[in-house]
Design goal:
- This protein is of the alpha+beta class.
- The two termini are 40 Å apart.
- Helices cover 43% and strands 18% of the residues.
- Helix 6 packs across helix 7.
- It has a six-stranded antiparallel beta sheet with strand order 3-4-13-12-9-10.
- Strand 1 and strand 2 form a beta hairpin.
Length: 406
């Protein structure tokens, strides 16, 4: 974002340049410039500054004829202003060029006429370039709207409170300006307790997004009816198999690593099924440990190669405990020396934080730790079991209006 300038923009309201025989900057130009972006940014002053610099240098060194460079101003304006703003900068450049020619007493000569013609041609070309740029920006804005809509459908934010479980999520796509990628998550309340999923599709781009949508839609269809996590994983495998039969070649080579979690309402436990995914972290009374599976389970879409045995492990999960689920975009973040991000060690600092605070700390720490451009998506889900009284108190605080004194 540019720095907004408070007060009248430079050269507005007919500001004069005395050294150029009172050549007035068109007031309409200022209005058009302000209409382009509501407020004039510092970067948008560059064409005006360039015009002033060229004119001043030309007057101080008339033998060098610097005013022939005035065509650079509208060319530069094409990257910042609308067509009208670019034409305004071109007209201003043309007026300054004519004024400088008059100062040098060569107005109407061949060299001066050629300069005027050059500025005119450059201005028209810059106006066309500005229109093309605007069209591309409009297209990009429409694509981003579609992307945001797709994210809301695919990666909708789960409720913050599910039974006695507080849930928060973090997501950041690796691609610049992207909203969705191959990482995904979901949290839903079912007759069997709160069920969570986090996953990572092998590959990138639109095929990964499509595969993530298949797995998530299958999870949402079967999460309520599946009697246990092993049956739910088998349903995900079947859904991926059907998907691979109905898409072009290449889908069969994709696989998805997932972690499924089930947190029953009446028991201080959690059941975890890990299908080739990074191990979740359990934060219990200031201590952090990785929840490694007691036996491996195959990633989704690899049961034909590795077998369809799914191992469900039960871990203690009492009031105040956290589960942190994440993708390899978190654990495989590297610093300048190539060292992986020490997630387990860093998480000890945030063992007593709320799920939202935990993910905020994690996000800030990752941004400070990473070196270079991130090439993988980041997804994390934090779940905490809270006491019923804590949840009810929080809900009551939201529903009761705040009384303010007069």
């Amino acid at each position: 974002m540019g720095v907004q300038i408070k007060g009248p923009p430079i050269a507005c309201r007919g500001t004069t340049v005395r050294s150029l025989r009172r050549v007035r900057v068109p007031g309409g130009l200022c209005r058009r410039m302000q209409a382009d972006g509501q407020t004039l940014e510092v970067g948008q002053l560059t064409p005006l500054v360039l015009i002033v610099v060229i004119a001043v240098v030309d007057i101080l060194t008339p033998h060098l004829e610097f005013y022939r460079l005035l065509g650079a101003a509208p060319a530069l304006a094409a990257a910042m202003f609308s067509v009208a703003g670019t034409l305004g900068i071109g007209v201003l450049s043309l007026g300054v060029g004519v004024a400088v020619s008059a100062v040098h007493h060569d107005l109407g000569q061949t060299a001066s006429n050629f300069t005027v013609l050059t500025i005119t041609v450059v201005t028209l070309a810059a106006a066309y370039a500005s229109r093309v740029r605007q069209h591309r920006e409009e297209t990009l804005a429409q694509v981003r709207v579609v992307s945001e809509t797709a994210q809301q459908v695919l990666l909708r934010a789960p409720p913050q409170h599910l039974a006695h479980i507080d849930v928060e999520v973090l997501y950041q796509a690796a691609a610049a300006h992207a909203r969705i990628g191959g990482d995904f998550y979901e949290a839903m309340q079912t007759p069997h307790g709160v069920r969570l999923i986090i996953g990572d599709v092998r590959g990138k781009g639109l095929p990964a997004v499509e595969t993530a949508a298949v797995v998530l839609s299958t999870f949402r269809v079967h999460v309520h009816s599946a009697p246990d996590l092993a049956s739910l994983a088998a349903s995900l495998e079947t859904g991926m198999g059907h998907y691979c039969l109905n898409v072009p070649d290449g889908a069969a080579e994709r696989f998805v690593t997932v972690v499924l979690v089930e947190i029953p309402d009446g028991e201080p436990i959690a059941r975890v099924l890990n299908c080739g995914h990074p191990a979740p972290l359990l934060l219990h009374r200031g201590k952090v440990r990785e929840v490694e599976p007691s036996a491996p389970s195959p990633p989704i879409n690899m049961a034909d190669l590795l077998g369809d045995h799914y191992q469900v492990d039960t871990i203690p999960f009492a009031t105040g405990d956290h589960l942190l689920l994440y993708t390899d975009g978190v654990s495989e973040t590297r610093d300048r020396t190539g060292v992986f991000y020490p997630l387990t060690q860093r998480a000890r600092r945030w063992a007593y934080a709320t799920p939202r605070q935990l993910l905020n700390h994690l996000h800030q720490d990752l941004r400070a730790y990473v070196h270079g451009i991130r090439d993988d998506d980041i997804a994390a889900l934090a779940a905490q079991r809270v006491a019923p009284c804590d949840w009810e108190t929080a809900e009551l605080g939201r529903s009761v209006p705040v009384q303010r004194g007069h």
